[in-house]
Design a protein that fits this description.
Layout (H helix, E strand, L loop, with lengths): L2 H13 L8 H15 L2 H9 L6 H23 L5 E3 L3 H12 L4 H20 L2 H8 L2 H22 L3 E4 L2 E4 L2 H7 L2 H24 L4 H18 L35 H6 L1 H29 L12 H18 L4 E3 L3 H6 L5 H21 L4 H16 L10 H16 L3 H18 L8 H16 L1
Antiparallel strand pairs: 1-4, 2-3
Helix pairs in contact: 2-16, 3-4, 4-14, 4-16, 5-6, 6-13, 6-14, 8-13, 8-17, 8-18, 8-19, 9-10, 10-11, 10-17, 11-17, 13-19, 18-19, 19-20
Amino acid sequence: MCEKTRGIFMLEKLFHLKENGTTVKTELIAGITTFITMVYILALNPSILSASGMDAGSILTATAVASAIACFCMAAFSNMPFALSAGLGLNAYFAYTVCGVMGYPWQVALTAVLVEGIIFIVMSLTNVREAIFNAIPVQLKVAVSVGIGFFIAFIGVQNAGIIVDGATLVSLYSFTNGFANGTFASQGVGVILCMIGVVSIVVMLIKGVKGYMLWGILLTWVLGIICQLLGIYVPNPELGYYSLIPTAFFSMPNSIAPTFFQFDFAFVASHLANFVVVVFAFLFVDIFDTLGTVIGCASKANMLDKDGKLPKIKGVLLADAVGTTAGAILGTSTITTFVESSSGITEGGRTGLTSVTTGILFLAALFLSPLFLTIPSFATAPALIVVGFLMMQQVVNIEWNDITKAFPSFVCITMMGFAYSISEGIAFGFISYTFIHVITGKAKEISLLMYILTGLFILKFFII
């Protein structure tokens, strides 16, 4: 048996590829696609967390290593194709609320993340988080998947600069204004290239091209490089548009020492009540961000059974919990399952080999960060937009004739995008689902856990 055949055999034995209807090539492409759509976190997370006073270089290293550990745990514990990294929103809460508004040192915030991770490990091992997952009604699970499609497409059009801030909160990018104020050569060109990328991905999808997401991202990036070389695209760092041409390919990782195991347990003892509130906030948002993402991605891959349950949910949630704990020790905010995992799943990723591939690329990024961080957001945006379209197709599975289920589903879908939060969308979906069923005389259809979670969601709006 040759080395290549032996390697494929080992991967088949580890990840059960045939059983899951996939191949090594498909899984590798899926893992690469997922990584490319979420590599932005290596630039964004240090930018956000450094506002708390943490060392940016150390944060980047901690984020990459913690992401890799979590991805490897995902493969080992569940053999699922989900990728993990530092959660957006949670890192902002860490830096701007806990360390900013509340004025706590970043060491205290890291301690809260550590405690959250340990609690999550206990909850995962004792089936508490699994019970919460299973308590969500099937119709709301479908709505969560559709809502994530809406949400991720919205992220995509924002990343590309198609949708911008405006008098109506969100506005369409104006080419006229772009020419007038001189931003067209960066932002306007990015918008056009994103649109070309979307069309190219859709055409490849229709034609059945393997790896269409990855090819679409690379095509958009290459077109951007050509535009920069021709002077059509002009980098504008003030707008967040940087050079598309890598100036280097290799760099040594930054030291992790400034953030490694930097906890403040003394604060916990003297400010226990305040500390509990901080931990609760991390817990609550992370639980439902993770559950929402897992529901959406698993639904897209048809991994849920007829009762809407995910057979390997315990391993998925345990990987998330271990990732968060490892991240706190290394020096980064909460690690959570990324919605961008859906891009790899759309490419056909079905096993842990997808998440292992993504994890390896996170480690490689420590040495090749100048290359990976050069990929522009308008090049990855087309993939997010098309993934959003594919996930929203499940809207046909909502029972629109049953308003007691359909309206809460509608609320969940719309609020996920409008509130720019998976957990907030789930919160509004839960509350409306419970209240409508109680008021219409269907209170017995609601489980005790649903009532408890609804009460916690309402309480959350007043204390977080």
